[in-house]
Amino acid sequence: MGTIGAEFSRFVRRDNLLLKPVPPTGRLGVGRNPPCYTSRAVPELPELEVVREVLTRRLAGRRIEAVTLAPKGAAVVVRDLTGEGFVSLLTGVLLGEVHRRGKFLLFDFPRAPFTLAVNPKLSGRFQLCAPGDKKAGPVHVTFHMAEPREDLRYVDSKQMGQLYLTRDTRRIPTFDEMGPDALDIGLEDFQRRLRSFRGEIKGILTRAPFVAGIGNAYADEILWQARLHPYRKRTALTAEEIVTLHQAMRQTLIDSTEKVRREMGDDVHLKPRDFFVVHLRGGQPCPRCGTPISEITANQRVTSFCRTCQPGGLVRGVS
Fold it and tell me: Could you tell me the pTM of the whole model?
């Protein structure tokens, strides 16, 4: 939410929502270069798609020479669903392509009948680097690649992600519950699936059983692009608005993936998001109309939107 003065660090509670006061013009970077929010970014489809591309290009066809598990962290994040030994099975195998399914990265081993599925969740990320390079955070698992020598580290400051080694992805919790990937679903399927979900449209967008890959941050960006209030009820959306939402979802994710690709390069531990339009831009002017961006914090989730460009979302006394 940027650097903020003490007089604006307070929250006002109204009807079980926390409303952040909007600072006057000139604060929070208005008229200045916007701050970069990489430190609090949760990986979503665009970031993971670029990580997938980089890891496939850099690692496919290479051998894992050894695997190192951190005594404490690995015990939390590693899930050996084969029961045959995480380290022993992965040592010496050749890596194939890396795939993505929603917010999961799937490592393929062309000569071995198992899959490594990684769900980074809130704070997990990879670091691909020389063995002696500075750690990007607490390292729980290290895959030591053979010549040229290189390390692929799994870093997770909160130990919330999981690495599943399995012969059957159906054994991974929630994996089979995911809907179509947000970049793959066509308009007709989008319309049909949407009818099965009730509630506020932002909450639906972030539900993996509806579409996979969208989280809190990109939902804000998509809804701003579609000019839809995040708290509009799904049942209140018109047929035209649903078409617009599908178009905005695809275009926002495609454009964002390209921007991440340019800014991240091969530094897969980074999560660049300084190109965001509304998410965590509270108090800054909307690029479309100039109205200060509003932010609401509810259920430990920040929602950022423009009250002028995204009207009609009266919710519990908050318009």
Answer: 0.84
